[in-house]
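agent> Task received from the user: take the single chain below, predict its 3D structure, and emit structure tokens. No templates, no multimer pairing.
agent> Plan: (1) validate residues, (2) run structure prediction, (3) serialize to tokens, (4) report one or two observations.
agent> Step 1 OK, no nonstandard residues flagged.
tool_call: predict_structure(input=
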Amino acid sequence: MALNIGDVAPDFSLFDSDKQSVTLSQFSGKPVVLLFFPQAFTGVCTTELCSIRDNSAHYNQVQAQVLALSVDSVFTLAKFKEEQRLNFPLLSDFNKDVSRSYGAIYEDWILNMRGVSKRSAFVVDGAGKIAYAEVLESAGDLPNFEAIEATLAAL
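)
tool_result: status=success, residues=155
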């Protein structure tokens, strides 16, 4: 199901790479950037998340919380976060429920892999509504970071 601007963002609780439960609604009152990515340790995913890490000042200025989600295990995400020195939570959607609820999943992907998160970006405003939504069909494309930052600046 596709989510549109103005829709209420589906709430969720997932474990992060530190094995701590993170719930979207715990960030109520502040903007959240949700980044779904296909797989840790792949080229484009590494580029995307390191770009967020390197530009964290943009997100900190507007007090936005960045959360990155994939269907990788918490153990894989912990190693990926450590190696890339990522400074935001990586959440494991291992059961694929959140990716499906956001319409951000490849049911069939490369090499016969099924149920992999589509590269997607959502901005959830402080009231829990979708302020920006981008679901990419090509895993080789990056989200429009300028549009994300403009959306955050306008909140």
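agent> Step 4: summary for the user.
Residues 30-154 form a domain with the Glutaredoxin fold (CATH 3.40.30.10).
agent> Done.
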